[in-house]
């Protein structure tokens, strides 16, 4: 006889999601929801769509979910296979978040007595599926409310640590609504110099890797991912650079149509599928350059102010902003772009990649330009890989071009623009595409003014 797994032996109720069905179960108290095939250890079917709605037995109850096992195919924005958690008892319910890959979210609790679990798969790969334990509870909290504080990201920290000037939540939310200014500038930041990684980057090219080579983890510690908050993983849409404990520099086109709540800043990340040790921050304000509207090409820069400043660590450090005389580092020094951008043939890269770049004749980028309006050399420069192997899609829109004369101290000189044929579409890259970069030195007066004003 087959051995029954321990969880199944003790389970009173197990609901399986069925294809084409929106199942609804009332008066639930506790049990499991699983993907088809999970119980007998087989993969879920392809081209599947179904949901299970759970309604707790009393209106004053909430439903707590524990993600005990998740193994789905992974894709950008979880557009292939996805597990979606929705809440709200009405038709216009809200999506709480989406999961794919093998990421197991922290426990989650609903806003009222109803939760819906939607599962979709595409025609590509499949995995083992998922097992979620649910439990109806009268307490709307994930932490022990007597002794613990619940962070925005659903972490629990000792209540004594709230507003003590130290960020205990990975998203800093324990220091968000505090009257003291202690948390505004973490104490350890003063003696951390900008532009100096603790883990030196590889600057000797290995073999020529199309689409760049994997970076040494945390060797570009100012590199951040701008992500869509509704995705627990795989929500990355643009790059950015940490320039101070509370400011990130990126491209204005990345923020088009977005409000502060639509952006989550992820810091200290190397592999997008492994987010267990990253730091995240919500955004307080988005400031795009005021001239961006009338000249998209020349003023494609923006600043994000973080809700709570970050503490510098071995994997999170700021990049140096340039002085006017450092502009010639472009020709004097060595320059690199990095990011999780598109890589030819593989969609996007899960690990941070880098590629060496050099300044190229401005005309070279103009020949490849798409869209209206010419970038001007005063505001932008053209850079790419002299061998034509690696394009900016190794990097990210909004990500930095950093240069160094000595290989130990780095300065940001460019912010990735999207003004070139291969980079506008994002996918035809990795095989050599030169790109326009906004000159950070030119925009320094605006950057300094903005950081002082808010």
For the biggest sheet, the summary is: 6 strands, antiparallel, barrel
- Name the helix and strand elements from N-terminus to C-terminus, one letter apiece: HEEEEEEEEEEEEEEEEEEEHEEHEEEHEH
Helix content: under 10%
CATH superfamily of the domain at 6-137: Spermadhesin, CUB domain
- What gross morphology would you assign? globular
Radius of gyration: 24 Å
For the largest sheet, list the strands in their spatial order.
Answer: 20-21-22-25-24-23
* Spans where pLDDT lies below 50 across 5 or more residues: 343-347, 421-432
Instruction: Name the beta content range.
Output: 25-35%
Total of helices: 5
Quote the distance from N terminus to C terminus. 68 Å
Number of strands: 25
Q: SS-based structural class?
A: mainly beta
Protein name: Putative serine protease
InterPro entries: CUB_dom, LDL_receptor-like_sf, LDLR_class-A_CS, LDrepeatLR_classA_rpt, Peptidase_S1_PA, Peptidase_S1_PA_chymotrypsin, Peptidase_S1A, Sperma_CUB_dom_sf
Domain Peptidase S1: 209-452
Subcellular location: Secreted
Detail the topology: elements first, then pairings.
Blueprint: H1 6-10, E1 14-16, E2 22-28, E3 30-34, E4 49-56, E5 62-71, E6 82-87, E7 94-99, E8 108-109, E9 114-120, E10 129-137, E11 148-150, E12 156-158, E13 213-214, E14 223-227, E15 236-244, E16 247-250, E17 264-267, E18 279-288, E19 302-306, H2 329-332, E20 334-339, E21 353-359, H3 362-368, E22 380-384, E23 400-404, E24 411-416, H4 421-425, E25 435-439, H5 440-453
In short:
This protein is mainly β and 454 residues long.
What does this entry look like structurally?
The chain has about 450 residues and is mainly beta. Among the domains are: about 5-135, Jelly Rolls; about 150-185, Irregular (Low-density Lipoprotein Receptor); about 325-440, Thrombin, subunit H (Beta Barrel), CATH 2.40.10. About 10% of the residues lie in helices and about 30% in strands. The strands form five sheets. The chain has a six-stranded antiparallel barrel with strand order 20-21-22-25-24-23.
């Amino acid at each position: 006889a087959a051995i029954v797994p321990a969880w199944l032996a003790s389970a009173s109720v197990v609901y399986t999601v069925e294809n084409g069905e929106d199942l609804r179960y009332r008066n639930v108290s506790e049990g499991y929801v699983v993907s088809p095939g999970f119980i007998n250890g087989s993969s879920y079917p392809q081209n599947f769509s179904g949901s299970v709605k759970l309604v707790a037995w009393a209106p004053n109850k909430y439903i707590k979910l524990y993600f005990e096992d998740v193994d789905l195919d992974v894709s950008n924005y979880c557009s292939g296979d996805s597990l979606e958690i929705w809440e709200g008892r009405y038709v216009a319910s809200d999506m709480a978040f989406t999961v794919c890959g093998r990421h197991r979210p922290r426990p989650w609790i609903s806003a009222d007595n109803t939760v819906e679990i939607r599962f979709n798969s595409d025609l590509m790969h499949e995995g083992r599926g998922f097992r979620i334990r649910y439990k109806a509870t009268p307490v709307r909290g994930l932490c022990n409310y007597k002794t613990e504080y619940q962070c925005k990201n659903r972490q629990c920290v000792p209540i004594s640590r709230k507003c003590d000037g130290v960020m205990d939540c990975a998203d800093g939310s324990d220091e968000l609504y505090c009257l003291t200014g202690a948390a505004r500038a973490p104490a350890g930041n003063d003696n951390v110099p900008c532009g100096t990684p603790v883990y030196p980057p590889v600057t000797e090219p290995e073999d020529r890797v199309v689409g760049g080579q994997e970076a040494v983890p945390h060797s570009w510690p100012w590199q951040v991912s701008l992500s869509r908050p509704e995705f627990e993983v795989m929500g990355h849409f643009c790059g950015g650079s940490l320039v101070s404990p509370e400011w990130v520099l990126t491209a204005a086109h990345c923020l088009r149509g977005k409000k502060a709540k639509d952006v989550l800043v992820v810091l200290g990340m190397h592999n997008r599928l492994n987010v267990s040790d990253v730091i995240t921050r919500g955004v307080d304000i988005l400031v795009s350059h005021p001239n961006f509207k009338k000249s998209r090409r020349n003023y494609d820069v923006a600043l994000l102010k973080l809700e709570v400043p970050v503490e510098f660590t071995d994997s999170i450090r700021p990049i140096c902003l340039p002085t006017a005389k450092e502009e010639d580092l472009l020709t004097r020094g060595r320059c690199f772009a990095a990011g999780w951008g598109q890589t030819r043939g593989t969609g996007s890269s899960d690990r941070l990649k880098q590629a060496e770049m050099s300044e190229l004749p401005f005309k070279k980028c103009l020949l490849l330009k798409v869209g209206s309006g010419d970038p001007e050399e005063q505001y932008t420069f053209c850079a790419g890989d002299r061998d034509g192997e690696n394009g900016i899609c190794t990097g990210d829109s909004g990500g930095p071009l950093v240069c160094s004369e000595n290989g130990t101290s780095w300065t940001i000189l460019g912010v990735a623009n999207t003004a070139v044929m291969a980079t506008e579409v994002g996918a035809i890259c990795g095989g050599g595409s030169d790109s326009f970069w906004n000159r950070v030195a030119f925009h320094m007066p605006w950057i300094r003014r903005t950081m002082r004003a808010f």
